[in-house]
Amino acid sequence: MLDRRHVLAMLGTTALATLAPSALFAAASIKPDDASALLVIDVQNCFLPGGSLAVKEGEQVVPVINRIAKAFSNVVMTQDWHTPGHISFASVHSGKKPFETIDLPYGKQVLWPDHCVQGTDGASLSKDLSIPHAELIIRKGFHKDVDSYSAFLEADGKTSTGLAGYLKGRKIKRVFVAGLATDFCVAWTALDARKAGFEVYVVEDACRGIDTQGSLAKAWADMAKAGVKRIQSADIAVSA
To answer: Where are the alpha helices (DSSP H) in the chain?
Structure first.
């Protein structure tokens, strides 16, 4: 009969040798390279405490994003940039309340409180964001009759923001998505990034969701199905 020392010796030369590569891979930090970009989605005052469409704990993403951004040489930020009286505002539709839905030519539209109106303080990026090397701000949702969650395509699924072309022109292969809100602008951005051919990671603890009518669980399920990878900020190697 083999004693414990013999078992450990065999594990050390056989089973452990087989398991080591996958174990090491699972524990390894992700090191962003020049072909990686961080997309910081809609960290704007309207979505933070006191804002008209505040996301619960939304302010908690800011220090996480500031920290991981140091690992990226390529950072893009986005802003919701709505016209006054935008079609996605409940106030525009008589008898409708925020979070109800209507049917529009491009599909079902959630109605929101007025938010991120062009030029207002609510539309401004959080003053606590500290990413001086961010190289591009994409503004979306500025067409009055079409909403725009994704950083890549407006809600009609065909009007491009130009972000995919920009990233491909910069030879970016993989994108990391963080910001607000997980179940809307983050998820739509991640899904469209996959459709555009990028490898996509969503940094879960650098995001917060709205979660209306099961939207958060659905978003994660849709992203998983599309091949989006769900990670934590600790998985990203950040130099001290």
So the answer is: 4-13, 15-27, 61-69, 163-169, 187-195, 215-226
CA dihedral sign of residues 185, 188, 192, 193: positive
* Look-up of token digits 């930090």: 29
**Please, which residues have CB within 8 angstroms of residue 155's CB and are 6 or more apart in sequence?**
106, 107, 109, 146, 147, 148, 149
What's the pLDDT score for residue 213?
Answer: 86
Question: Which CATH architecture group holds 36-83+114-233?
Answer: 3-Layer(aba) Sandwich (3.40)
pTM (2 decimals)? 0.87
Catalytically annotated residues: 42, 140, 185
Q: Position 198: which residue type?
A: F
- Cβ distance 69 to 83 under 8 Å? no
The rounded percent of the chain whose pLDDT value lies above 70 is 88
In this prediction, residue 145 carries a pLDDT of 96
Q: Cα(115)–Cα(45) distance, rounded to whole angstroms?
A: 9
The answer to whether residues 133 and 75 touch, using CB atoms and an 8 Å cutoff, is yes
